[in-house]
Structure formats: structure tokens, C-alpha cells
Specification:
- It contains one helix and nine strands, in the order E-H-E-E-E-E-E-E-E-E.
- By secondary structure, the protein is mainly β.
- It has one domain.
- Strands 1-2-7-8-9 form a five-stranded antiparallel beta sheet, with no helix packed on it. The chain has a two-stranded antiparallel sheet with strand order 3-6. Strands 4-5 form a two-stranded antiparallel ribbon.
- Strand 7 and strand 8 form a beta hairpin.
- It is elongated.
Length: 203
């Protein structure tokens, strides 16, 4: 970002999520033959054998670099950052009129000097996603099994917001105006709830 002074480029990686928690789980429902409830009868046969599994992901936001108009630098190829003029408040606002951070904390540097805000100084919104699957193996013959499966990505349909605008010259500076597109979030996931059903025959 800074060819004149490469040391200014030192900072968190653009994809860094400093804090992360990932939990995988698997639980066999207590219904059907050999279980605690509904051990016999047609209801037990339908309710038995189901298993729940999934992954819960909770991670902090990615870095934000506050940029400014670099025309006054007369240094092509270098990125101009803003000046910090007041303590930054993380307001956690969403959409226009509700900034993620306090925009008034930053100002355009005067003259041919770099701004005093470093690379990746702030963080954007975090990421929460619960993936859930429910499946059952039905034995048809000794060597033939049918697996019925239902899967959801982002089961709770939790909003996953994109980073706010970080350009001081933008009319939406400091505001989050979009969400993470499907397939671009953590580990390639992200977006609204997705549900899919499937069946697999093993023989």
C-alpha cells in the first residue's frame, strides 16, 4: 500500500479474524429400538434412527483500513490514509444513518503528507453461522441402505453483514450497506439460510 515507506504496510492480514470459535457436534436422537423413548411400534420405527450433526462458527471481523483522497500526495501507487482527529467509537450501526464507527473521528490530511491512521486499524462486523443436518439410515437389505438427509446452512438465518465503506471520500463512509454474499464468507460459506434435501442409496 505504501511504496515510499513500506513499513507503513505492516499490519494484520486482510483476511485475519483474530478471535474464532468452531464447534462440531453429532447427536443420536433417543427414539426407536434400543433407545429411551418410542422403542416399538410404527411411530418408533419412523422416529428412530435419526441423528443430528452440524458446525457452529463464531468469528470476529476482518480489518478495516481508513483511506482518504491521495491527490495531494503527488505519489502515484501509494495509498493515502485518513488522520485520526478524535477517539473512535464502534457504534455497531447497520445501514445508512447508523454508522458502524464514528465517521467524525477521521479527517482528510492537509498537504503532501500521509495520514496517521495505520493499515487495518479497525475491525468490521463479526460472523456467526450454524449449519445443521438431520439424517437417518434405513436398511433395505443386508447390503443395501437408504440414507435420508436434510441439511441447512445458516439454520438461524442470522444476518452476516459486509464491512462498512472505509473511504473518506465516499458518501457512505462508515456505513454498512450490504451483506456477505453466499459462498464468500468464512470457509466459503455465507449468505441467508439455505435448505437442501437428499437421499443416498448405498449397496
Amino acid at each position: 500500500m505504501f511504496y515510499i515507506n513500506p513499513r507503513r504496510s505492516y499490519g494484520r492480514a486482510d483476511w485475519d479474524r483474530t478471535l474464532g470459535y468452531v464447534q462440531s457436534y453429532s447427536y443420536q436422537l433417543p427414539f426407536g429400538r434400543g433407545k429411551k423413548w418410542l422403542t416399538s411400534g410404527p411411530v418408533g420405527q419412523i422416529a428412530g434412527g435419526w441423528q443430528v450433526s452440524g458446525v457452529l462458527t463464531i468469528e470476529s471481523g476482518t480489518p478495516l483500513t481508513i483511506t482518504a483522497n491521495g491527490g495531494g500526495l503527488a505519489a502515484p501507487g501509494n495509498t493515502q490514509t485518513a488522520n485520526l482527529v478524535a477517539p473512535v467509537q464502534i457504534l455497531h450501526g447497520i445501514n445508512l444513518g447508523n454508522p458502524w464507527f464514528s465517521p467524525s473521528s477521521f479527517a482528510q490530511p492537509a498537504g503532501a503528507v500521509f495520514g496517521n491512521v495505520g493499515r487495518g486499524a479497525l475491525s468490521g462486523p463479526g460472523f456467526i453461522q450454524l449449519n445443521l443436518s438431520l439424517f437417518k439410515d434405513v436398511r433395505i437389505k443386508e447390503r443395501t441402505t437408504l440414507q435420508l438427509r436434510g441439511e441447512t446452512f445458516n439454520f438461524t438465518n442470522t444476518p452476516q453483514f459486509a464491512n462498512p465503506s472505509t473511504s473518506l471520500t465516499s458518501q457512505t463512509f462508515g456505513y454498512i450497506t450490504g451483506t456477505v454474499a453466499s459462498g464468500t464468507g468464512v470457509n466459503g460459506i455465507g449468505g441467508g439460510r439455505v435448505v437442501q434435501l437428499g437421499a443416498r442409496l448405498t449397496f
